[in-house]
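Entry 14. Ran structure prediction on the chain below.
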Amino acid sequence: MGIVLGFLPCGLTYTALLASARAAMDAENPFAGMLQGALMMLLFGIGTAPALILVGKVVNTISQTTRKRFYRIASLIMIATGLWFVASAP
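Output, structure tokens:
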């Protein structure tokens, strides 16, 4: 299941997709709207690429033991968040 979830885009990508679709819908010409939406997504990809590359480089510089600690902390945070959501459900 983890591999499948890795193919889902993040919330920022959905927001960019909605914005580009809306811009295409507001265009006078369907072709111009398609180009405008494509340009918006291209610029979104170019804008997010430096941050993704930086995260990849930083992760490669962290030692294996530190990485394991981060994974454990992240796992505990995810478990705590899930328990909190279950406990606060009406």
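The chain has four helices and no strands. Will compare against last week's run tomorrow.
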